[in-house]
């Protein structure tokens, strides 16, 4: 192209054709930029990468600008090279994390979109003409629980009639991600439905209030970490963790530019901004994710300080603080939160069973607050059952036999709840239910033997 621009009459002999080609916007732009190329090369800028960012090679760029003595041409050259440099930089950033399955980190294709665009359904109670008085419906309900309905801690043993409806009859929200969730490893065939109840929305209100407390500008702040404690088997990790992730991804990216989700010694980082926007990077080792988060924090700090200095702010590093995102850490087995979790620039919630050994030291050092999440209520268990049996529930509306089957199955669920408690994991999974019953029987036997000995 440069040879043609230098001597167009040699390569395009027809006058009309030559004029038409040279009048094309691409050729005109190239002709303009070509005038600057020799000057750029003399200053050592021989490639897009050597052009650098806005604050790089300032002296060389100033010399080229002065030599051109053409402000319009200089603006065109700068615009084209800045755009090209940014594209190259973004491609390099993606290349650092797009690795093979055998390596430490990899992008999970379409996972971000799957979570952000998760589909809503809901279950209503008190529907007189439906089996069990329950109705399963697609979409988000017209009205959801008010803050006043949600932001209360229910009594330990509420006196409720499972057949009564409350409020507008909304008992359960269901959030379905086509690819699943971090808890399921985004694996095909795994559970995709997350059950959102009042208690989980209450937890989100606490987290949302914390993020809303952070300043809208770049002034200093201290994120408040939390420990969410709940009985195993109520959907604390899968349900509440996934729901918090969904809400945080929908929150203002200026305050929550990324979400890091730790579980089973690995981590998923959901990027909302920058070169990796709308991508999920899976780090097989949690330490690798922490290193990536340190790099992200460093880049955000440097960019913030540079911007503030350009605005005339003195001591910007001491007066300003970057917001990096939010951490969800799911405690499991030997994988417990470490003090290296960067809670000074990231919000954080740790999900744990009541076993204090999971988090006690971390909570003390980080001065974290508790959030307690309660078990399912009777109507929520019934709504959960209605969703699980929604196909049979639909058939039962016009089939007496199917209606009888639904009622019999529900009576079995009620019996299990009486035996093992309102814990979906142990009520609706036959294997888990039997193991739970055996464990309870074993504990009772040991207590009984202890009483005899004393």
UniProtKB/TrEMBL annotation:
Signal peptide: none annotated. It holds the Pfam family RHS_N. Residues 112-214 form the Retrotransposon hot spot protein N-terminal domain. Residues 227-453 form the Retrotransposon hot spot protein,C-terminal domain. NCBIfam families: Trypano_RHS. This is Retrotransposon hot spot protein (RHS), putative.
């Amino acid at each position: 192209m440069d040879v043609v621009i230098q001597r167009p009459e040699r390569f395009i002999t027809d006058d009309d054709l030559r004029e038409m080609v040279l009048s094309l916007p691409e050729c005109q732009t190239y002709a303009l930029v070509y005038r600057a190329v020799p000057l750029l090369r003399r200053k050592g800028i021989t490639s897009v990468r050597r052009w650098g960012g806005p604050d790089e090679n300032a002296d060389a760029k100033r010399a080229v600008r002065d030599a051109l003595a053409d402000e319009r041409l200089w603006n065109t050259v700068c615009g084209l090279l800045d755009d090209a440099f940014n594209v190259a930089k973004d491609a390099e950033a993606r290349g650092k994390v797009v690795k093979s399955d055998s390596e430490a980190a990899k992008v999970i294709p379409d996972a971000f979109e799957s979570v952000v665009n998760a589909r809503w359904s809901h279950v209503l109670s008190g529907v007189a003409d439906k089996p069990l008085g329950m109705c399963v419906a697609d979409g988000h309900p017209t009205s959801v629980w008010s803050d006043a309905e949600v932001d209360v801690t229910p009594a330990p043993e509420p006196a409720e009639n499972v057949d009564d409806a409350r409020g507008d009859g909304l008992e359960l929200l269901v959030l379905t991600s086509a690819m699943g969730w971090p808890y399921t490893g985004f694996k095909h065939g795994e559970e995709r439905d997350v059950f959102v109840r009042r208690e989980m929305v209450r937890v989100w209100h606490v987290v949302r209030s914390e993020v809303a407390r952070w300043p809208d500008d770049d002034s200093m702040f201290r994120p408040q970490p939390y420990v969410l404690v709940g009985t195993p088997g109520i959907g604390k990790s899968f349900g509440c963790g996934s729901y918090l992730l969904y809400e945080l991804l929908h929150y203002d990216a200026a305050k929550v530019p990324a979400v890091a989700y730790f579980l089973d010694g690995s981590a998923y980082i959901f990027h909302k901004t920058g070169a990796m926007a709308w991508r999920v990077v899976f780090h097989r080792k949690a330490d690798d994710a922490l290193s990536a988060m340190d790099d992200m924090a460093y880049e955000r700090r440097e960019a913030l300080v540079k911007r503030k200095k350009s605005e005339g702010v003195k001591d910007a590093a001491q007066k300003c603080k970057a917001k990096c995102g939010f951490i969800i850490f799911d405690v499991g087995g030997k994988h417990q939160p470490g003090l290296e979790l960067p809670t000074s620039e990231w919000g954080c919630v740790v999900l744990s069973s009541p076993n204090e050994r999971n988090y006690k030291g971390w909570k003390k050092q980080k001065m974290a607050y508790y959030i307690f999440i309660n078990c399912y209520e009777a109507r929520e268990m019934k709504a959960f059952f209605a969703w699980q049996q929604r196909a049979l529930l639909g058939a039962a509306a016009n089939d007496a036999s199917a209606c009888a089957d639904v009622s019999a199955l529900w009576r079995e669920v009620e019996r299990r709840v009486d035996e093992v408690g309102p814990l979906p994991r142990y009520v609706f999974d036959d294997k888990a239910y039997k193991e739970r019953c055996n464990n309870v029987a074993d504990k009772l036997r040991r207590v009984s033997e202890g009483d005899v000995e004393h």
